[in-house]
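Input record, target 12 of the design panel.
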């Protein structure tokens, strides 16, 4: 059993960690066979919720043949649009560095974290996303379902909160920005 004083100190330390709002675009729904092809993160101050830093990039797919066509349609993938994408190893290292010692926020955040961990594993990067995460789906359910929110999709939560929704072609930074707006309203 953790004494209350130690528990309080640990909570204060957690509350001092920067927050990173993330979004990924992927080649499908299964991190065991599909890849991350775009990442975005917005690092924010845990007290003011002001933006400290951002990171976004496209990732070169190694096995485009395994992609689900609907996923590529949703995220607007074309070989031309991904011509300047970075290698997966570079992507994994950048994500690990950007997200180190932070609290991660995302919409259905375990989906994104599953893909990030699969990217780390595939590239031999010995990093992990901290288990302290905030899921805006859970926040929306807790705070908005009783007010009439019928669907927990990011688009519907944005609409319910009078936030302009993401474009029909999803981009990681646009998704992270919308999630950040939702988080600010619900936190």
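The sequence produced for target 12 reads:
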């Amino acid at each position: 059993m953790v004494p209350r004083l130690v528990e309080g100190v640990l909570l204060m330390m957690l509350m001092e960690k920067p927050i990173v709002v993330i979004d990924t675009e992927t080649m499908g729904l299964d991190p065991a066979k599909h890849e991350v092809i775009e990442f975005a993160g917005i690092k924010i101050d845990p007290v003011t919720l002001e933006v400290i830093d951002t990171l976004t990039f496209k990732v070169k797919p190694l096995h485009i043949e395994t992609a689900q066509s609907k996923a590529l349609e949703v995220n607007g993938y074309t070989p031309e649009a991904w011509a300047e994408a970075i290698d997966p190893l570079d992507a994994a290292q950048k994500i690990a560095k950007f997200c180190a010692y932070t609290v991660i926020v995302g919409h259905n955040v375990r989906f994104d974290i599953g893909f990030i961990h699969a990217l780390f594993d595939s590239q031999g990067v010995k990093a992990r996303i901290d288990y302290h995460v905030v899921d805006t789906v859970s926040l929306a359910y807790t705070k908005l379902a009783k007010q009439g929110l019928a669907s927990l999709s990011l688009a519907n939560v944005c609409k319910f909160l009078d936030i302009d929704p993401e474009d029909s072609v999803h981009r990681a930074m646009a998704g992270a920005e919308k999630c950040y707006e939702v988080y600010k309203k619900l936190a």
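Residues 34 and 96 are 19 Å apart (CA to CA).
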